[in-house]
Amino acid sequence: MTSTDLYMEFFGFSERPFTLLPDPDFLFWSRAHRRAFSVLEYGVMTRSPITVITGEVGVGKTTLIQKLLQTLDDDITLGLVSNAQGGRGELLQWALNSLGVDTDFHGAYVTLFQQLQDFVIEEYAAGRRVILLIDEAQNLSIEGLEELRMLTNINSNKDELLQLILVGQPELRQMIMRPELRQFAQRVTATYHIPSLDRAAVAGYIQHRLTHVGGTGSEFTSEAIDLVHHHTHGIPRLVNKLCDFSMVYAATEERRVVDAAIIEEVLDDGIFLPTVQSAGEAAE
Question: How many domains, in total, are found in the chain?
């Protein structure tokens, strides 16, 4: 029996409450996450040419995306592009591949663009519309974002045949605000930035995840939550890591409640290592 199994059995949980895997069933609806999801829904419902969602590393953007995918209507054809990079034409290859379009990836740019345009028009004729969702979009270059803007030229008249949803880290928002991307920014209809959780939201987040797996929600003392918030900067992914380690420690010592002393033990042992990048971004 592993230490993880031990704490699940010890606390009577149906599964680990603080897993690092993005799971929409565990989604905690903080005010910021509700607003971000509303912006995503607004972008889809109003057929916004470009919708942009940004947030700190580990704040829950991927979980929101997965939740959105569960709600999309059957008349939407979705292409999900993760971590796309490269120069001119390569983004088109990512897009075509995500939509399941058979293509010659060594073909000319004009040929690839025509294939995408033909596919989008065919879907429209069949009563469907196409959404390209680009995750980790901060990795795109200025040229890549301009290429995406050109893809929206497929739209004509009052009908939006192709929509773009970009999700990424804070630097994506900074890129879009650059003067050379003003034409791109003008096509962004809806945008929202998800901040890190404040102390009250961290408390609600921890309680939500505990009760979701059959816990009481009071397995962490108020002082313990203070420390969790302070050392994770309110980043949900880091909250999960620190709380998971703390529950292992508590179960090993047969203690039903995680108090500040247990959090301090985990920190002192050095097994919880928040990244410098995450901590720095949370301070912005």
Answer: 2
| Chain mean position to CA 78 | 16
Instruction: Return the SS3 of 222.
Output: helix
Question: In this structure, are 66 and 143 located in the same domain?
Answer: yes
Helix or strand (DSSP H, E) at 190:
strand 188-194
Helices (H), 87-141: 90-98, 109-125
Residues above pLDDT 70, as percent of the chain: 93
154, 179, 194 - which closes a domain: 194
Give me Rg for the CA atoms of the chain.
22
Distance CA 23, CA 69 (A): 12
Q: Domain containing 249: what range?
A: 197-269
Say if residue 168 is in the same domain as residue 52: yes
User: Would the CA dihedral through 260, 265, 267, 268 be positive or negative?
Assistant: positive
| pLDDT tens digits, one per residue of 198-245 | 999 999 999 999 999 999 999 999 999 999 999 999 999 999 999 999
What are the strands of the beta sheet with 162-168, ordered from one edge? 76-82, 129-135, 162-168, 50-55, 188-194
Q: How far apart are CA 206 and CA 46, in angstroms?
A: 34
The answer to whether residues 128 and 221 belong to one domain is no
14 is written with which tokens? 């149906």
Q: Mapping DSSP to helix (H, G, I), strand (E, B) and coil, where does residue 18 land?
A: coil
Could you say which of 137, 163, 194 is where a domain stops? 194
Comparing CA positions, the residue from 51, 96, 105 lying closest to residue 77 is 96
- Amino acid at position 76, single letter: I
Would 281 be classed as within a structural domain? no
Ramachandran area for residue 280 (φ above 0: left; ψ -120 to 50: alpha; else beta): alpha
74 & 141 share domain? yes
What tens digit of pLDDT does each residue of 74-112 get?
999 999 998 777 666 788 888 999 999 988 777 788 888
